[in-house]
Amino acid sequence: MTGPSRTSEVLEITTTAGVVQARQQVRVLAQQCRLSLVDQTKLITAASELARNTLVHGGGGTMTALLVEERARRGVRLSFADHGPGIADVDLALTDGWTSGTGMGLGLSGSKRLVDDFVLDTTPGEGTTVTITKWGR
Amino acid sequence: MADKHVSERLIALLSGRGEDLGAEWAEKVTGSLGGRVARAEVERELREIYAALVAALSDGSVDGYDEAFGEVRALLTELSRNRALQGFTPTETAVSVFALKQVLEPSLVGEDSDADAYLRFAALLDTLGLFTIEVYSRTREELIAAQAEQLLELSTPVVKLWEGVIGVPLVGTLDSARTMVVMEKMLQALIDTGSEQAIIDITGVPTVDTEVAQHLLKTVVAARLMGAECTISGIRPQIAQTIVALGIDFGDIVTKSTLADALRHALRRSGTTVSRTAPQAGAR
User: Fold this and answer.
1) Per the database record, which ranges form the Histidine kinase/HSP90-like ATPase domain (chain A) (predicted)?
2) d(C-alpha A47, C-alpha B15), whole Å
3) ipTM rounded to 2 decimals
4) Which of B210, B217, B239, B241 to mutate to test the interface with A (most CBs of A within 10 A)?
C-alpha cells in the first residue's frame, strides 16, 4: 500500500539560487521525517547533485518534494523534472567519471548510491525525470 | 486637439471631485495592503501623486513617459522602492496605481463623451502601473545583489594560525563565485605571511557535493603550485560517509576531522614541535 502524500511542494529550479533552495527545502523535510543525520546529509547531497543536473543539463526544471508513508515506514520522495535534451545513453551517463559537462562525472551515479530508490525516466529530445526516495530506519 | 480635450475632461473630473476621489483611492489602497501601512501614510503618498498627476495633465499630455509626468514617475519610484524594501508583493505595489482606475470608472463610463477620456486615462495608468512594477523588480534585484556581495565578503576570512600556517574557515555554500574569492584570498595570504601550510576548514559547510569537492580540489592544487601544502579539516562523520558513497577521491590530499588535528599535522610538517609542560599556577 502506498500511502498518500502528506505535503507536496513544487520548487522551480532556474538559477543556482534554486539549487540552494532545493537543499534547504529537502533539509526541512528530512528533519520532519526524522531521518538520521547521515541519511539527512546523503539525501541533501543527492538532491543538490540532481538539482544541479536539472539546471545545467536540463536547462532548468522543477523539484517536487513530498513525505511518503509505506508499509509503516516513512520517507522523503523527491522528483526532479526538466524538459531538456534528455539522456541518449543512460548506462554511459550512470558510469562513474563520465561527464558531458565540466563536473566530476559522479553526480548521477553518486546520487544513486546515496538513496534507497532511484528511478531515471528520460526521453531524448523531451526531457528527464529522476525520482529518488530515502526511507527512515 | 484630442489630447487637450481628454486632459481637460480629466482635470475637470479629478479636481472637481478631488477630495472624494482621493479619499476613495486611499481607502482602496489601504485595504489592499492589509493594514501594513498606516492609512495616514498612504493618504500622504497618494495625495502627492494625485497632485502631480493633475499638474501633468494640465500640461496637456496623457503619455506616461512624457516629460510632463517626470514628477509623477519620481513619486512612483519612491513609493515602489519603499514597498519593495518593506517586502510587499509586486501586486500589492502596483495596485496603488490601478486602484485609481477603479475609483474613476463610475464617473467616466456614465456619459458617452467620456468613453474616449476613460480609455486614454486607463492607458496612462497602465503605463504608470508597469513603470511601478519595473522599479519594484529593479529594487529587489539591487537588494539581492547587494546581499550576495555582502555575504561573499563576510564569509571568507583568512586567519594566521601560527608562524607559517594560515587557516581558511569556510561557512555556508561553496559555489564558483565564492571559490574564486577564497582561492584569491588564500593565495594572497600565503605570499603576504610567507606561509607554507594552509588549512581549509569545512566544519561550516553543510553539504559537500561533487561541485564543492571539485572547488576544494582546485584550491588545493592552486596552493600546491605555489609551493604550499594544504590540509582539509572539519570532515564530520556524515560528510565522510557521503563523500565515500558519492565516489569522490581526494587522492593524496591530507584530510582531518578537526582543525586541531590539522594544525598539529601542519606544525609537524613545518618542523615545529609543541610539548606539554607542567601547568603554571597563577600566571596572571
Assistant:
1) 39-133
2) 60
3) 0.85
4) B210
Report the chain B residue with the minimal C-alpha distance to residue A52: B211
On whether both B118 and B204 belong to a single domain, the answer is no
Low-confidence ranges of chain B (pLDDT < 70): 1-4, 16-18, 108-114, 152-155, 282-284
Interface check for B279 against chain A (CB to CB < 8 A): the answer is no
Examine the domain organization and report whether B141 and B223 are in the same domain: no
Q: Which residues of A touch B246 (CB under 8 A)?
A: 45, 49, 106, 110-111, 113-114
Number of structural domains, chain A?
1
Q: Do B211 and A52 touch (CB under 8 A)?
A: yes
pLDDT digits (tens, 9 = 90+) for B226-248: 999 999 999 999 999 999 999 99
Task: Clarify whether residues B11 and B129 are in a common domain.
Answer: yes
- Contact across the interface for A48 and B214, Cβ inside 8 Å: no
Instruction: Check CB contact of B241 with chain A, cutoff 8 Å.
Output: yes
Domain hosting B140: range is 2-150
Please judge whether B206 and A109 are an interchain contact, meaning their C-beta atoms are less than 8 angstroms apart: no
Residue B279 lies in a domain: no
Determine contact: B240 vs chain A, CB below 8 A: no
Q: Which residues 119-178 of B are in CB contact (within 8 Å) with A? A: 173, 175
